[in-house]
Fold this sequence. Notes:
Elements lengths: L2 H8 L4 H15 L3 E20 L8 E10 L2 E8 L12 E9 L4 E10 L7 E7 L10 E5 L4 E21 L8 E10 L3 E8 L12 E3 L3 E4 L3 E11 L7 E8 L4 E10 H5 L2
Antiparallel strand pairs: 1-2, 1-8, 2-5, 3-4, 3-14, 6-7, 6-10, 8-9, 9-13, 10-11, 10-12, 14-15
Amino acid sequence: MNITTLRQTACTGSLGMALACLALAHSSQAQTAKVSASFSMPTRVQAVVTTMDCENHPGPTITLEGGLILGGLNVDFIFRNNINKDVHVRTESVTVNASLIPKDSRIQIPKQPVRGGTGGNPFIWVQFIDGKGNAVSKEIFLGRCVQGLFNVDKALGTLTSTMLNVLVEGCENSPGPYITFDGSFTFKQGMSVQFIFRNNDNPVGGPHEAIVKSDAIMLIPPDVSITFPKQPVRGGVGGNPWISVQFRNGDGTAIGGEVLLGRCEQLSKQ
Length: 270
């Protein structure tokens, strides 16, 4: 008996078996639509820097700890009964918003030790860089080592990307189709921090200026991802709507343009 005959035989049994076969047939047809975007997410670093052994050779010991505050990420699912402006049909539109990363979510920065400097109680700056060594902030002046405790609060931006997997079902239902989605958010470039030690705080330099830069300390490795758990979305205008997706920052600012996924029935049978 081949597989086709076996499936036909199984589906002619009880009502429960028949329903299971229908569900199997539907799941074999439905596939996920994928949509992605790359953008610079607003972020803010809030950290505490402490210093010790300022006069020692080869320089002070520094620790940094705190958190990276994320600007947030949302997605709009937009349902329309018509996308052709040349057709004299009243256009109805419904937008359903889903939160992917809540605004002001915090990624904890574990305590990180650094040793280095020019000796002799140096002046200290800090700078944030990406995984390729490109600056994502200017040098931030902290003060002289012996002061011992510094607070850092700085707005940054970091290159990220996001991917959604969207599954569409129940197109003719009221109040609209049933959608589930999951996906991930990836820090493409990562983020590191570097300390700069100078023997004077003159911004234009000075005689016999000594400058030492610490090795970069990785705060977020490149390509680290946050996974979105599967979430449901229900809504629409009924009658097999067109479905689009719009990503937004946590403050509502649009990221790129709308992405048209397609018509509900086509998506549910891909």
